[in-house]
């Protein structure tokens, strides 16, 4: 098959993988470990959170710390349900109140600022997300240190926003630093470390350093398979990333084999998720 036909064929295959991963993971994957609750669970949690927030507002007032904590939790639930605009409105209100009551540098204020940055990101407002993320990251580092888990989580999501804006060099610098710190603090095989490695490989490929991207992706896929399992969502994402590296290096045969395997595994996982929701 001519190269042009192979490229077109691989492009269609990889688009199918991307669609299946979006179906499994949603448009935004938080930098957290563990299995996500089902939509049914999230709806139940949302109803409880709505009730608790209404009760706190009535009994304690809008500015009470418990009220703001419940507002923060409800916004996170809305975001998980892809109700991003409502999450943003609630998070922005919580952030404004915490800034006024607690100050700009209070840890709870910074948590709210990070949440607003996440809302902006999933809504596609990357420039605003970057501005708020950079300010919040500087405050986290000054308050808690460069290696604090909160700072590293925000650095990870900030790099995603920079990448979305095409600022690959800045994303690369941030991802390299985050990966180094996570390797030192969490170890090579921690899920957060593996997500950072996956992001760095994306940066390398975007900047044309295909061989380094492939080497890092191969290591990441191997570690994901060993520690998380062949069908884990993070493993499938890393495999898709490696397939893209292979394609960039014109290793079409391996790219196709890995892409087809990932499609099959994604479809199997979607079927399993559908069965779980019907139980």
Write the layout of secondary structure elements.
Layout: H1 3-25, H2 39-59, H3 65-80, H4 84-102, H5 107-122, H6 126-144, H7 149-164, H8 168-186, H9 191-206, H10 210-227, H11 233-248, H12 252-278
Helix pairs in contact: 1-11, 1-12, 2-3, 3-4, 4-5, 5-6, 5-7, 6-7, 7-8, 8-9, 9-10, 9-11, 10-11, 11-12
Describe the structure.
The protein is mainly alpha-helical. Helices cover 81% and strands 0% of the residues. The chain contains twelve helices and no strands. The protein has helices at residues 3-25, 39-59, 65-80, 84-102, 107-122, 126-144, 149-164, 168-186, 191-206, 210-227, 233-248, 252-278. The radius of gyration is 20 Å and the shape is globular. It starts with a helix and ends with a helix. Residues 32-37 and 275-279 have low confidence and may be disordered.
Reported for the largest beta sheet, the result is:
none
**End-to-end C-alpha gap:** 46 Å
Radius of gyration (CA) equals: 20 Å
- Number of extended strands: 0
Count helical runs: 12
Mean pLDDT: 88
Runs in which pLDDT lies below 50 for 5 or more consecutive residues are 32-37, 275-279
Instruction: Give the overall shape.
Output: globular
Alpha-beta classification: mainly alpha
Summarize the amount of helix as a percent range.
over 70%
Order of helices and strands: HHHHHHHHHHHH
**How would you classify the quaternary structure?**
single chain
